[in-house]
Specification:
Length: 164
Amino acid sequence: MSKAKQKTFNTIARHLLAQKRKSMTPMEDCRYRMELRSDKVLKCAIGCLIPDDKYRPSLEGKAVTNPEVRLAIPREHRWVPTDPKSDQRQMMLALQQLHDLKHPGTWTLGLALVAKAFGLRTDQVDGLPGLDYHKEVTTKSLEILACDISIYYKIGGNPNWRNV
């Protein structure tokens, strides 16, 4: 397990569990950042990694794999651009898909699923159950939750996506 990957996972997991809602427009377009009328700013899974001084509205609509977005992310959370199958990159794609495609009520289980798939610990994030929690969850429910995310594991070359 990479310390950088664990740190990135912990940062994103804590953010999503605290925010409890998507950073999404009324037209259901996900945003790295979205200001609400209450002056609260929502951030997506990747948006929470981008410091205020690096954020630009021009990032919106671009994938996390876009060089401009990648360079806005601090170095400790980035992946090597010459390695498109990097575990760090694939984990970030999976976490972004969890934010974009799944209801916030499923994020706890989804985060634990991503942690298990990438060999990460969940005990460092308050509110996230330990990996033993999965023993009580049926394989079918895990497959349903993993459906959208699993595409990224297969693309990323993670052969263990069905074993999570």
